[in-house]
Amino acid sequence: MKIGVLSLQGDVIEHINHIRKLGHIGIEIKKVEDMNGINGIILPGGESTAIGKLLREIKMLIPLRDKILSGLPVWGTCAGMILLAKSIEGETDGHLKIMDIKVKRNAYGSQINSFKRNVIISEISSEPQPLVFIRGPVITETASDVKILCKVDDKIVAAKQNNMFVTAFHPELTDNLAVHKYFINMCN
């Protein structure tokens, strides 16, 4: 299976390494043509405003949006969640605007407020998952067909809607492969 990782900024190589550890092909997606033949795409953590600006500059925003709307499985981690959200608290503009969620940026504070928590996400594994939060967003509103997968401190930090999966945390920054395995199963 070939999984693309949007490679404009952020935790790219970490995701690719996890995909490879699971026996699949991880490739960097830097231009529209790179999306040909992939089974799924990860929108990594990083800076959502910078990634959104770059997607527009290289004319990749609409083709990526169209691929996802046509059924390409997508996983947005942290900044990727913000890119997918239909709305962002306190802002009028979004980016891809395709997942029926509203997000709040930096909901856990600044970089110095980063933390790690071990949480069982029953949809993913019966074992506790190490969740790493770095300036993480949270989901503040969802449409009725969005499945909430995980809450931390009563805040929604993982959800799924059709072919779209989002996490406010960074599984790529741990040695645990369960969340990547979950996404790869979505791509089958």
Automatic annotation (TrEMBL):
Hydrolase keyword on record: yes
Q: Identify the keywords attached in UniProt to this record, alphabetized.
A: Glutamine amidotransferase, Hydrolase, Lyase, Pyridoxal phosphate
The UniProt annotation places L-glutamine binding at 46-48, 105, 134-135
Q: Which Pfam families match?
A: SNO
Q: Which reaction does it catalyse?
A: aldehydo-D-ribose 5-phosphate + D-glyceraldehyde 3-phosphate + L-glutamine = pyridoxal 5'-phosphate + L-glutamate + phosphate + 3 H2O + H(+); L-glutamine + H2O = L-glutamate + NH4(+)
Q: Where is the active site?
A: 78, 170, 172
Q: Which PROSITE patterns match?
A: GATASE_TYPE_1, PDXT_SNO_1, PDXT_SNO_2
- What Gene Ontology molecular-function terms does this entry list? glutaminase activity; pyridoxal 5'-phosphate synthase (glutamine hydrolysing) activity
The pathway this protein participates in, as annotated, is: Cofactor biosynthesis; pyridoxal 5'-phosphate biosynthesis
EC number(s) on file? 4.3.3.6, 3.5.1.2
Q: What family does this belong to?
A: Belongs to the glutaminase PdxT/SNO family.
Against HAMAP family, the record matches this protein to: PdxT
**Briefly, what is this protein's role?**
Catalyzes the hydrolysis of glutamine to glutamate and ammonia as part of the biosynthesis of pyridoxal 5'-phosphate. The resulting ammonia molecule is channeled to the active site of PdxS.
Q: How does it assemble?
A: In the presence of PdxS, forms a dodecamer of heterodimers. Only shows activity in the heterodimer.
What is this protein's record name? Answer: Pyridoxal 5'-phosphate synthase subunit PdxT
* Source organism of the structure: Clostridium frigoris
